[in-house]
Amino acid sequence: SSLWSHVPSAPPDSILGIANLYRKDPEKKKLNLSVGAYRDDNGNPCILRVVRKVEQEPAPDHEYIPMAGISLFCQAAAKLILGENASSIAEKRVVTVQSLSGTGALRVGAEFLYRFYHPNPANTEKPRVYIPRPSWGNHRKVFESAGLKVSEYTYFDPVTCDVDAKGLLEDLKNNVPSYSVIVLHACAHNPTGADPSEELWKEILQVVLQKQLLVFFDSAYQGFASGDLEKDAFAVRLFEQSGIEMLVAQSFAKNMGLYGERVGALSFICKDTCPVDAVQSQLETIIRSMYSSPPANGARIACRILNDPQLFQEWKQELVEMSARIQNMRKLLYEALVSRKTPGDWSHITKQIGMFSFTGLNAKQVRYLREKHHIYMTEDGRASMAGLSRETVPMFADAIHDAVT
Ligand code: PLP
Q: Which residues form the Aminotransferase class I/classII large domain (predicted)?
């Protein structure tokens, strides 16, 4: 028998497992709303025009790039999320390394925390990482893979289909120990599509300061949520301006449509007493042992777009187009349900932002949609609004109507 005979199969990834079922379904009029990737109004993947343009420029070479990635890309990424005039950047308190998209930024950040985050001398146990309930399915696995323990904080109210502001603040105040790491979705919370209001962000910041929590922002949708890069960076910038130390993971998968190119960045925003060169060198050591150095192609494309004013404008225009199409799908779906007099309040569909809507459908209804209507979404009731088109909205609305009546 093989050396590996004893190896059990890993449970399938809940999202990719659904995508597999979709692929196997022979029905022509099937609809995949399970994956988080933008589709155009014909349901096709699309390459941004500005990305196509930059792709015409041949790569200068295929040499290795440094462990920390392309430095002009790293600087531009930090500026994009923290703001042109961020004092942390002016004061050289920011360390940024290129990463394998958002997941890689979280993973390298997690590894660094495992090695170096020992904030409480009275307690030898490592601080826990708190992620929202619910959160992106991979968060727990990424932090646990680095050896960290993960717990959850209250985030969502399934009755209102909105952020449970009171529950969230109480949980942070009463149940999350000081010095814990807290993961915050910068905007367009996945999977719920429900974000804190600006007021609530300010209250969260106050608790973070009181409890001395270490914030790890996950920014996977900047510019893609509202169409406005500045607006989607509100929370990160608010926290940066308070002067606290924090980590930020950035992904350029959605906002530049560079999914498979794996373009991202990890930033440490430090205090002025922080040994930034030491932090940078330890991040490089982690990267070296994990994958040596990051891929060049996607970061070169992003670097050109971020550093060229004309290309940057073109990108912003496309962000507006993509986010407007998604918002339009929300509106059409909402109107379609209202016109069918589908029982229930569906206003959360237009209130939520970003790629996803947490429809409020339960697992049984989701299975019914899959088996009867060939519509695929994750069992938590999350549907990708970016996967809808004018043609498929009526089909989805009919199916929801059928499932809930
Ligand atoms: N974080 C959140 C909240 C996400 O939704 C995603 C992607 O779906 C990611 C991180 C990471 O994606 P990627 O590694 O493709 O950048």
A: 28-400
Q: Which residues contact 386 (CB under 8 A, 6 or more apart)?
A: 36, 37, 38, 39, 322, 325, 326, 329, 355
Report the C-alpha gap between 203 and 199 in whole angstroms.
7
What pTM, to 2 d.p., does this model score?
0.96
Residues with CB under 6 A from ligand 1: 36, 101-103, 136, 185, 190, 218, 220, 251, 253, 264
* Cβ-contact 292, 63 below 8 angstroms: no
Give the Å distance between the CA of 36 and the centre of ligand 1: 9
Question: What is the chain's percent helix, strand, coil content, to nearest 5?
Answer: 45, 15, 40
Q: What is the ipTM of this complex?
A: 0.99
Instruction: Report pLDDT for 16.
Output: 78
Distance, CA of 2 to CA of 53 (rounded, Å): 50
**Residue-wise burial string across 223-241, b where 16 or more C-beta atoms lie within 10 A, e elsewhere:** bbbbbebeebbbbbbebbe
